[in-house]
Amino acid sequence: MKLTLHVWRQKNPGDAGRMVQYEHKSVNPHMSFLEMLDVLNEELIAKGEEPIAFDHDCREGICGMCGFMINGIAHGPERETTVCQLHMRHFKDGDVLYLEPWRARAFPVVKDLVVDRSAFDRIIAAGGFISVVTGSAPDGNTILVPKKNADLAMDAAACIGCGACVAACPNASAALFTGAKISHLGLLPQGQPERNLRVLSMVARVKEELFGSCTNIGECEAVCPKEIKLEVIARMNRDFLRASWTERGDALRSED
Ligand code: SF4
Ligand code: FES
Fold first, then answer.
1. Helix (H/G/I), strand (E/B), else coil: 111
2. Sign of torsion, CA 139 144 148 153?
3. Å from CA of 93 to ligand 1 middle
4. What backbone torsions phi and psi does residue 133 show, to the nearest 5 degrees?
5. Which atom of ligand 1 has the smallest separation from the CA of 161?
6. Is 199 helix (H, G, I), strand (E, B) or coil?
7. β-pair partners for 96
8. Tens of pLDDT, residues 142-187
9. What is the DSSP string of 156-174?
10. Fewer beta carbons within 10 Å, N or C terminal of the chain?
11. Strand, helix or coil at 212?
């Protein structure tokens, strides 16, 4: 298979960047998308050119490191698939592909297709955890969890923090990611003591990181490789309202 690739090349965060065209003549349909780029990079290195920088780690769809736009779609045309799990058999000989990094003010470009997603880490650090005394693992049945909640929490915990939801959103909102993190802890008994503080702190951090607001467009859900549902945003908003009212009530009572 032969492909024409137009790839965003940007030397560093301060560089203006530009699209560069490559003719890739040795694409095997069994390759993953990242393996296809590996082969192109080997050719570039052999010619003494700078290889294309892209993020990756597990290449199994579980770590959340990979991700860029392929013809304007986050992670490419296959639904519920990370770009590392996307295979070249889904493309045709002669296809023309445009590869660009995630575009969002909160995700500045580091180099080529690599962006800085540390804003997500700071949102997690603001409250995406539970405070417990560590020690040996407690017995599995010590704290009972209703089956429905366990399933919903597990679904939300599937979020791998890839950032596709932000890249696909016209507002560059981080609502799906943050809603998933707030949901998976808020649905479990262990997450209850810090539930109000968690949602207030994490939502405040999202604003500080300059992500946009959610206007229920749903592009995030459409591109999410882990099928995170919009319901997590509704749950986050409910938790946020309840926590805000509880805090306001506490403030009024303390004035009495
Ligand atoms: S919600 Fe989906 S798209 Fe967004 S960071 Fe998590 S896994 Fe990626
Ligand atoms: S490299 Fe880990 S999810 Fe793609």
1. strand
2. negative
3. 31
4. -80, 120
5. 5
6. helix
7. 4
8. 889 999 999 999 999 999 999 999 999 999 999 999 999 999 999 9
9. HHT-----HHHHH-TT-B-
10. C
11. strand
